Amino acid sequence: MSRFKNEISRLEAHVVTLRIGVGLFFLVAVLMGLGWWSAPRDMTIHVPPDLRSGSTRKWWEVPPETVYTFGFYIFQQLNRWPTNGEEDYPRNLRQLAPFLTPGCKTQLEAEFEERRAGGELRKRTRGVYEIPERGYSDNPTLRVKTLGNDAWIVNLDLTADEYYGSEKVKRALVRYPLHVLRVDTDPERNPFGLLLNCYSGKPQRLSSSPTSQSTDTGLDAPGQGVVQ
Question: Which CATH class, in words, describes the domain spanning 64-216?
Answer without folding.
Answer: alpha beta
